[in-house]
């Protein structure tokens, strides 16, 4: 029986079958080898071994990742040097980045759950190389939005009260007592013959029965509001009396 002569092919179908690529040795290789296979690094001195076993207590291996328990007792995943550039780019100039300083960027990386030894140095170097950040400069007071105090209250919680008049006599009435709710701008008004404390107390009792007891009543320094009868009525219903500042149009 004669065998057919077959030409021997010296080349593989996959040209890179045995190609050797540049493989990065991660900074935590010795720690991962010890935790995964109990392999102690060779060539360490007594002090280096002591420090190695002290540091390795903060790490644990969960195949295929190594995790570190940081100083704030939060567990974060250890990443290689090749991964840090993408993480820095995302936390600094990504959709949720904001082009903050190096310290702020480092905190965002920690909040994302990543860790490597030079975590606080690399963001500072990355920020200094950012052209957009260098052109922005420091934010001054001129760039801040104005912060104005906002009155926080519920409807019918704070009423402003004041007299209008005197007007020409109309059916025996010369004054109008006006109360306005600061939240809803609801207005209550009543025509009165006088502007003494007695009619004010009667008006407030009718106001409380309709809208409930407010937290505060704001008025000016008129004697019809600053008197014993008025204060006793407010104390009875648990409301506070606030006096407006002179010549302050916002509370008029």
Automatic annotation (TrEMBL):
Domain Integrase catalytic: 142-252
SUPFAM superfamilies listed in its UniProt record: Ribonuclease H-like (SSF53098)
Domain of life: Eukaryota
Signal peptide stretch: none
Pfam families membership: Integrase_H2C2, rve
PANTHER family membership: ENDONUCLEASE-RELATED (PTHR47266)
Stated name of the protein: Integrase catalytic domain-containing protein
């Amino acid at each position: 029986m004669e065998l057919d002569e077959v030409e021997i092919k010296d080349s593989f179908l996959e040209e890179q079958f045995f190609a050797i690529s540049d493989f990065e040795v991660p900074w935590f290789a010795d720690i991962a080898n010890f935790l995964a296979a109990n392999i102690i690094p060779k060539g360490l001195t007594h002090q280096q071994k002591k420090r190695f076993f002290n540091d390795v207590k903060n790490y644990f291996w969960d195949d295929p990742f190594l995790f570190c328990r940081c100083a704030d007792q939060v567990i974060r995943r250890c990443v290689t040097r090749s991964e840090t550039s993408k993480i820095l780019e995302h936390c600094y100039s990504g959709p949720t980045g904001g082009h903050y300083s190096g310290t702020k960027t480092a905190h965002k990386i920690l909040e994302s759950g990543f860790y490597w030894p030079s975590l606080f140095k690399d963001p500072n170097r990355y920020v200094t190389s950012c052209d957009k950040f260098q052109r922005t400069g420091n934010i001054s007071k001129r760039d801040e939005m104005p912060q104005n105090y906002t009155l926080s209250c519920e409807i019918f919680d704070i009423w402003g009260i004041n007299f209008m008049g005197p007007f020409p006599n109309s059916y025996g009435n010369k004054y109008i007592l006006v109360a306005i709710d600061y939240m809803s701008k609801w207005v209550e008004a009543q025509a009165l013959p006088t502007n003494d404390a007695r009619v004010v107390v009667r008006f407030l009792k009718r106001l409380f029965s309709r809208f409930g007891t407010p937290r505060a009543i704001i008025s000016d320094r008129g004697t019809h509001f600053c008197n014993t009868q008025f204060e006793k009525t407010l104390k009875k219903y648990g409301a506070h009396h606030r006096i407006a500042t002179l010549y302050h149009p916002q509370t008029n």
